[in-house]
Design brief:
The chain has about 550 residues and is an alpha/beta fold. It is about 40% helix and about 15% strand. It has 17 helices and 15 strands. The strands form 2 sheets. The chain has a 5-stranded mixed beta sheet with strand order 1-5-2-4-3. The protein is globular.
């Protein structure tokens, strides 16, 4: 008798299927126009997220409430969203010209508007990845809200526990709680959350702000209150997608406006015919790498360049940053904050013809007769990377002139699968998660270039994920330990490369031999407990790798040996 083959799925396969199911379900719900996350229409999304159990959401599958994951999500959603039963995802539909005040989450650039006590509008101008991000986060907090409901609702008639009653009294206080009042409330909250008193106390202040120091209690109370109402009164929370958003999504409307604005400035400054180098980075590292040491050398005498960069990165260094920016503007930098396109991607343009190299950190720069122009764009978000770079690399419509883009460089932070926070990753290919798409390229940067800089460097393929909030250890271990040999994960690489390849190899709108550079520094290691994104930021750990990568890119552009 033949032995039966083992047809059971591994955790990695189950996780991969769960991600695919979430991806398909979210697109279906978007096309449908609305759904109730804790109703029948939200079943598939909830089940897939619970099957996946992403690392960032910690104990999502257990009875106790996940605190670190909740903090991570709350920082990326607008203040007050926990109080709203109706969440409406819209396009840019003119709310900025109304009396409504824009609410911008601390850790995510998106404009949100509180319409009334029950409704929050969230503007989606950064593409599908923004929708996946929000829906995943909302699904998580709604699951957590029903954990709270399970622990405080005693019967179907609406009778609640004493802990809940005491929490309600604490939340109704209009003034800041005293230390004694706070600790009493924390004691009741800990019972409700299934957590210890010290666990709640340790994370309490991270939720707060100057205006709302006791916000932690408000978040827990409102999440539980709406979950109770869903059961007792059948008042289900509802997420809707506006008709305009459904009509506009995927048509590069915001990316086209953004790219056209940049080209208009290039034309006005007579820079369109010059060699162009595009760099996707933050809004300080290129500027500081060129000018900061010159501007601040008297203030920080005998200090290293990296010491100066760390000082500039500190939260109270506005005066120093302004000084460097002012000098940069006098020596060829044009600042283009994004005000109208909706992409939320600021831009800097550097005209190297106006840089006095003797007063820069690159005194031996060789830029040739046709002085290059550097376009630095702030980080895109997921699929938005394709929309923006695709539009930027197209010919300028008004005179149909092709852009002489000599290089595109992408630097940023990513998750690492071997190593730790602050290490550097040099990708040799991008693999698109959930599809068979993969993008192999020749990277002008290599691990050898960083060999003597005292930071571990890893080289190999990287996976472009649908969202950082969808990752789990089993799937990442498979990518890392199998023949894929993946060294890290990020959200934009394959989208950038898709746009660069189509522009250079198919559409011929930029030179065929355009150079590409990719390098990332590690913001987290999702395979290590306590090192996920939910465990906190990098602090100054990210300063050295950020500037090392930026300087290597600039050395190649400026032909510095």
């Amino acid at each position: 008798m033949k032995e039966m083959k083992n047809t059971s799925r591994s955790r990695a396969q189950e996780s991969s299927a769960a991600i695919e199911k979430m991806y398909i379900t979210m697109r279906h719900l978007f096309n449908r126009g609305f759904y109730k996350p804790m109703g029948i229409s939200g079943d598939t999304l909830r089940e897939a997220l619970l099957a996946l159990r992403p690392e960032i959401y910690g104990n999502i599958g257990e009875e106790k409430v996940e605190l670190n994951g909740l903090l991570y999500v709350i920082e990326r959603l607008p203040v007050g969203i926990e109080e709203c039963r109706f969440i409406n995802l819209t396009s840019d539909e003119g709310y900025s010209k109304s009396h409504f005040q824009a609410i911008v989450p601390p850790k995510r650039k998106r404009n949100c508007y509180r319409i009334d006590e029950e409704q929050m509008n969230v503007e989606i101008t950064r593409g599908r990845s923004d929708i996946y991000d929000i829906l995943t986060h909302l699904t998580f907090i709604f699951i957590e809200s029903h954990k709270i409901r399970n622990r405080v609702l005693l019967d179907d008639a609406g009778e609640v526990s004493r802990d809940w009653q005491k929490l309600e009294i604490a939340v109704s206080q209009k003034k800041k709680l005293t230390q004694i009042e706070k600790e009493k409330a924390v004691s009741h909250a800990a019972n409700i959350l299934g957590r210890t008193f010290i666990e709640v106390l340790d994370i309490y202040d991270a939720f707060g702000s100057e205006l709302s120091p006791d916000r932690f209690l408000h978040v827990i109370y409102w999440l539980g209150k709406l979950a109770i109402e869903e059961i007792v009164d059948d008042n289900k929370r509802t997420i809707t997608f506006s008709p305009i958003l459904r009509e506009r999504l995927g048509h590069h409307i915001h990316g086209e406006i953004w790219a056209t604005n940049i080209k208009e400035v290039l034309k006005e400054k007579k820079l369109l015919d010059r060699p162009i180098h595009v760099i996707s980075a933050n809004m300080h590292s290129v500027m500081n790498s060129i000018f900061a040491t010159t501007v601040l050398k008297t203030k920080f005498k005998d200090k290293s360049d990296f010491f100066i960069y760390e000082e500039l990165s500190k939260s109270g260094a506005n005066e120093l940053r302004d000084k460097v920016e002012e000098f940069a503007k006098q020596h060829g930098m044009i600042s283009l904050p994004d005000a109208a396109s909706g992409t939320n991607i600021d831009v800097q343009i550097f005209d190297t013809a106006k840089i006095d190299w003797a007063k820069s950190s690159f005194p031996t720069a060789k830029t040739g007769d046709k002085k290059p122009v550097i376009i630095v764009m702030d980080y895109a978000f997921g699929e938005q990377a394709y929309e923006t770079i695709d539009e930027l690399l197209k010919p300028f419509k008004k005179n149909n002139s092709l852009l002489n883009v000599e290089s595109v460089s992408i630097m940023g932070k990513a998750g690492i699968l071997e190593g730790g926070k602050g290490d550097i990753m040099i990708p040799s290919a991008h693999i698109n998660e959930g599809t068979a798409d993969n993008y192999f390229f020749h990277n002008e940067l290599s691990a050898e270039m960083f060999a003597s800089d005292g930071i571990p460097v890893f080289e190999g393929p990287m996976v472009t994920v649908l969202g950082t909030s969808l990752q789990n250890k089993d799937l990442l271990k498979f990518f890392h330990e199998s023949t894929w040999g993946v060294i890290g994960l990020e959200m934009e690489g394959s989208y950038y490369q898709k746009a660069i390849q189509s522009a250079s190899k198919i559409r011929k709108s930029i030179p065929h031999d355009v150079k590409v550079r990719y390098a990332y520094y590690a913001s987290d290691n999702p395979l290590e407990t306590g090192s996920t994104l939910a465990s906190g930021g990098l602090g100054t750990t990210g300063v050295k790798p950020t500037y090392l990568i930026t300087i290597k890119i600039l050395e190649q552009i400026f032909n510095v040996k």
